[in-house]
Amino acid sequence: MQNKPSPTCPSVRILLVEDDLHLAGFVEQAITDLGHEVTHAYSVLDALGQLESGTFDLAVLDVELRDGVVFPVADRLAAANTPYLFASAVYDQLVPVRHQHVRFVAKPFHVEELQTAVREMLIAAA
């Protein structure tokens, strides 16, 4: 049986996939303010490497990255039953059908909106 983390437990590991360094710092701070550990990936390739080398309780994914769209990462997360959400400026209608059930936080967003989404996803996964 997999040990499910509490949404407020500091041992929660979150993968952040964002290629805008300024925004990534902002998002990372918002998540660490909730008491969670963040691993940042800057590209699809970097994110896939992070998934090979570790496990995560949740992922926050930008859709369009410098080396392509993030959907291969989302596919890997879905296959591993790891919850994830999209935080992106692209229209949610551009998300493939296989990922349209996933929560979408539209950029620009308020920090509280992202934090609420993270909290709610962790509660739902617990």
TrEMBL record:
Organism: Stenotrophomonas oahuensis
Entry keyword set: Phosphoprotein
InterPro entries linked to this entry: Bact_response_regulator, CheY-like_superfamily, Sig_transdc_resp-reg_receiver
Residue list for modification 4-aspartylphosphate: D62
Pfam families in alphabetical order: Response_reg
Domain of life: Bacteria
Protein name: Response regulator
PROSITE patterns: RESPONSE_REGULATORY
Domain Response regulatory positions: 13-122
